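Example protein as discussed:

>
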Amino acid sequence: MKKVFYLFLFLFLLPLAQLQAADTPEIDTGATAWMLTSTALVLLMIPGLAMFYGGLVRTKNVLGTMMHSFAAMGIMTVLWVICGYSMAFGSNILGGWFGWNPDYFLLSGIDESIMEGGIPEYIFSMFQAKFAIITPALIAGAFAERVSFKGYCFFIAAWGILIYNPLCHWVWASDGFLFNLGAKGAIDFAGGTVVHISAGVSGLVAAIWLGARKSHPHLPMRPSNLVMTMIGAGLLWVGWFGFNAGSSITSGLSTAQALTATQIAAAAGALVWVIIEGFHQGKATALGFVSGILAGLVAITPAAGVVQPVGAMALGALATIICYLAIMLKNKLGYDDTLDAFGIHGVGGIVGAIFLVFFIRESWMADAASIAGGSWSVWQQLGVQSLAVLIAITYAGVGTLIILFVVNKFTPIRSSEEGEMRGLDNHYHGERGYGMINPN
């Protein structure tokens, strides 16, 4: 009788166990390994950016400028764990302004969570955290050499919570309104809108609001170490493979497509920049080469998953031409975007986000047409992209202005005149980047 009972119990419970196993995704070790690698690659971009920016400022501001990138690693990671991940990827609240999920608060409810693609949710959350780190660090290039360290820290904390997290939710969360705009949403594969446009526009607003550096543009302000800048650009290029190819959140065909597009756009951007310089200035500079690398990388970021190699090459070249013209215009207008955060990241992001529509894969458009009920044109997608770009520009620009005004009421954001003349390194950190070398 016992044997019959146990047999019956086994037969009864087996389907339940199978059903539970089917509901629990298994870990895909290949995808997980790639996402671990991508997360590390994106983190590598932060010291890469620090070196890139640090080499472009004057000797007395090298450490202070590099600290802007490193400080973001600490501040934004902690804020992301406390509330950022929940605000970005939780369910809509307050009419969809941002999201919230109690399980994401302090990452308390995802300890054993496996995502649908077979990736532990911890990895996805940490991968996305790197984007939240690098975006405000990019802004720092616009007001380098004239911002107080304390003011900067308060600014990026408020900016991350009020600007980055909502934008991330709108574009990348499954219930974000830009994610669901049109047939297949506004295309932003790896952060053209969320990262580069928002950072570039915010940097422009901050640069104008803070005003120019002392003696700008009357005295020459030479880079301290272009060798370090070139190494930083190389690290950014390598890290960008994690940035773009990792945004596939898998390890397969789309990963390979994004990685290939990234390499091609960066190379095309660098080549076109030095060609333009050769005709315009008679010399091809190292700074121009790395500027072209960045312009190409920024432009392909929103498009890496939807364009073929010819599209990547075209976007890299086009972005370089327009970014070059934007920097020339900056010099004529006279505003002091120290390291061209808007000229490269803002303009390059806009070019990539809008012009990608002319190079979208036919398979993507066919899927969009199927979802839309049989018809979806490039011009309709252009309208979606343009609206998303306009919303990002407006929200980031107005929001940044408000944050600057409010934070400045509590602590000065602009460095004191004494601090600016002595240099950020000594005044705010009590150190010098180059030992006994004259800091001026």
Residues 4-22 have pLDDT under 50 and may be disordered. DSSP finds 15 helices and two strands in the chain. The radius of gyration is 23 Å. The CA atoms of residues 52 and 147 lie 18 Å apart.
